[in-house]
Specification:
This protein is an alpha/beta fold. The protein has helices spanning 23-40, 64-77, 98-112, 121-125, 129-135, 142-160, 172-184, 188-198, 223-232, 248-263, 267-286, 310-319, and strands spanning 12-14, 19-21, 54-59, 83-91, 115-120, 165-167, 214-215, 295-296, 303-304. Strands 5-4-3-6-7 form a 5-stranded parallel beta sheet, with helices on both faces. Helix 2 crosses helix 9 (223-232) and helix 7 (172-184) crosses helix 10 (248-263). The structure holds iron/sulfur cluster.
């Protein structure tokens, strides 16, 4: 099948739009959609100037999503004096997995001449995910520990580096899964938080108290197109899956969405457009009404609704084994 835009062979058919695109036109289309998302979300504040640039910290794991995001942001804003970008990599301590993806991060950051910092669970908390999985003191899935530790480091270091925004590589599939999980779990407050934390335009979002705002510029791009983009552009992305990947419920939702998308192309896009509107309304409803004033954790000083934050409680429990 030929590309709709030129005589070259198509490398993909997007059932949701009917488009057949060659490698070059697929990449152009991804670039265009990401830049439109950045504009529509007002990612770059109107107040940023060369004298007072915005600082963006990009969460760079070395996987295809964060590598593609970093590449497109560099192409778009690399020479823009109104933006300062840097990459932050978290090393979880997963043998044979993270070391290879860290290499991809270092290679990419060097090729873009971008500041790159790396922090590890081991240096910060004295734990490695491989050991946590083995001991499992809370009888939880590995990702439940890992997500708490990662969020803590991303937030804490973004703040330390003076970030105005924290950017992550979540794609359309990730976001549609999260949306469906929130709805199926009946967690309306979580829907509201999802909006203020990372959906919608910065013009409409309410600052999450004390947290650095997040942005997800790839959230319109299906996972498969992100992977093709990384492959076609020969970006140094690390593709292997984490050996502890274990979010069983998310996996079920992922399979359900694949099936729905196959039978009803465009399902992920329609979920997100309806969900975003719903999330904006629920955010409006719950703002300032969640009843939880944040304090500083007595042990590490990070923001928490209790006396001791979740991360410190998990570390205590791991160290007690
Ligand atoms: Fe951590 Fe789970 Fe991601 Fe592995 S898949 S890096 S355990 S969050």
């Amino acid at each position: 099948m030929e590309c709709d835009k030129c005589d070259n062979e198509a490398v993909m058919h997007a059932s949701y739009s009917g488009a057949h695109l060659c490698g070059t036109h697929l990449c152009l289309s991804v670039d265009k959609r990401v830049r439109r998302r950045i504009r529509e979300d007002s990612l770059l504040s109107a107040d940023s100037t060369p004298e007072n640039p915005e600082k963006w910290v990009i969460g760079l794991s070395g996987g295809k999503d964060s590598v593609v995001l970093t590449h497109i942001l560099d192409e778009t804003f690399g020479n823009d004096p109104r933006v300062e970008m840097m990459a932050l990599t978290i090393h979880e301590g997963i043998e044979g997995y993270r070391d290879a993806s860290v290499e991809a991060c270092v290679e990419l950051a060097e090729s873009l001449d971008m500041r790159h910092e790396m922090v590890s669970y081991e240096d910060e908390f004295g734990v490695r995910m491989d050991d946590v999985v083995e001991d499992d003191p809370e009888n939880m899935a590995p990702c439940a520990y890992c997500g708490v530790f990662r969020r803590d480091l991303l937030e804490g270091y973004a703040e330390e580096f003076g970030a105005d925004k924290l950017l992550t590589g979540h794609n359309l599939d990730d976001e549609a899964q999260t949306a469906l999980m929130n709805i199926l779990e009946g967690d309306i407050k979580q829907v509201a938080k999802h909006f203020d934390a990372s959906l919608g335009s910065f013009d409409d979002r309410h600052d999450q108290r004390d947290f650095i705002p997040r942005a997800k510029p790839l959230r319109d791009i299906p996972e498969k197109e992100v992977a093709l983009y990384a492959h076609i552009k020969e970006l140094p992305a690390h593709i292997t899956e984490c050996p502890h990947a274990s979010e069983a419920y998310r996996g079920e939702i992922q399979k359900l969405l694949w099936k729905l998308e196959e039978n009803h192309p465009g399902t992920r896009h329609s979920i997100m457009s309806g969900y975003e509107e719903l999330a904006a309304l629920t955010a409006e409803r719950y703002r300032g009404n969640d009843g939880a004033d944040l304090n500083e954790c007595e042990q590490c000083g990070s923001k928490t609704g209790s006396q001791i934050c979740r991360k410190c409680r998990l570390i205590e429990s791991i160290n007690a084994v």
